[in-house]
Amino acid sequence: MTFSPFFRKLTLTTHITFSIGWVGAVASFLAIAIAGLVSQNAQMARSLYLALELVGWYVIVPFCLASLLTGLVESLGTPWGFFRYYWIVVKLFLTIAATVVLLVHMQLVSHIANTALLTTFQVEGFRSLRIQFVADAGAALLVLLAITAISVYKPWGRTRYGVNKENEQRKTGPLRISTTRKPWGLYVLIGMICLVILLFAILHLTGVMGGH
After folding, report:
1. Domain range for 25
2. Whole-model pTM?
3. 211 within a domain of the structure (yes/no)
4. How many Å apart are CA 196 and CA 139, to the nearest integer?
5. Which of 149, 153, 167, 209 has its CA 20 to 30 A from that of 109?
6. Structure confidence by residue, pLDDT tens digits, 12-53
């Protein structure tokens, strides 16, 4: 299924809008999380963490889901497809992973927001969790910037599936593997992502972060 030029532009505009909104919302979350980390006033910190929950559930999550949905629709209705290009596969993987991590992360945000409603709330008692909010928001912002860069530069060429589909459409005979470059940049990116995940896992296990 291929969209008409009008709907292709409409879906692209919608996807870009939600993606930019997602980045801006995460940047706002990071700013509030930093303010909550450095604040020594319990009342101020309480307000900041209540704001984090509002921004998370009512801004970041909707923009995240809308960006993912419009991206899927755009791939479905354009010649790009889902699995024809390495950059689309990586972008889709990162977006889905970011969405899952966001939904899990918001449970912690809701936990500290609910705790902030109590009169016994103490800023010092949640320092590890407050540091984790800043670190996670910063990491999320880097991932979103990486997704944006991938969308602009479109690296790594076509996948084997993409080459095969193109040859089928052109009816040119045998599969022409030589038309696709070796995706060394893809391997580097995957390795970096694995290192970041491993680092966060080690920090959590050693209690440096998330000692809540």
Report:
1. 5-205
2. 0.79
3. no
4. 9
5. 149
6. 999 999 999 999 999 999 999 999 999 888 889 999 999 999
